[in-house]
Amino acid sequence: MYNHDLDEKKAFDEWIVKIGDGNIGGPNDGEAEIKFPEDVVVRSIGDHIHSIVSIIYLSFENHLDDQSYFQEKAILVPTNDEFDATNDYILGLMKDEGKTYEFKFFT
Questions:
Q1: Taking Cα atoms as reference points, which of 98, 92, 99, 97 lies closest to residue 60?
Q2: How confident is the model over 17-55, as pLDDT tens digits?
Q3: Shortest CA distance to 62 belongs to which of 100, 93, 17?
Q4: Quick one: CA dihedral 42, 44, 50, 55, positive or negative?
Q5: How far apart are CA 65 and CA 48, in angstroms?
Q6: Which contacts qualify for 60-66: CB closer than 8 Å, 24 or more apart?
Q7: Which residues contact 44 (CB under 8 A, 6 or more apart)?
Q8: What pLDDT is attached to residue 83?
Q9: How far apart are CA 32 and CA 75, in angstroms?
């Protein structure tokens, strides 16, 4: 990474921490309005979860065995319901046929 990239990443990291600490968005009585920088906002029409996941996780199906691919990215959502819906969508993309194991008990 170049110094400029590191500076941008550090500034973004600090901004995220300020959101988590409740220091951005004005008075917070349980709800706050936060202005996101345009370069981190994903605009979508229609199925917004599909749009966000396909932009953040390009070639998702080709990276299922690559842990670093998933560790280097994040999707922020405003509510637990949005989290559940996004999580369900992503898990649905992981097409695992499953495995059946036989258990034999010997006496």
A1: 92
A2: 887 787 876 666 667 777 888 877 778 788 889 998 998
A3: 93
A4: negative
A5: 25
A6: 60/90, 60/93, 61/93, 61/95, 64/94
A7: 51, 52
A8: 92
A9: 19
Q: CB count, 10 Å around CB of 51?
A: 14
Task: Judge contact between 86 and 53, C-beta under 8 A.
Answer: yes
- 34, two tokens: 């936060």
pLDDT (tens digit per residue) in 57-87: 888 888 888 888 888 888 888 889 999 999 9
Token couple for 31? 């709800």
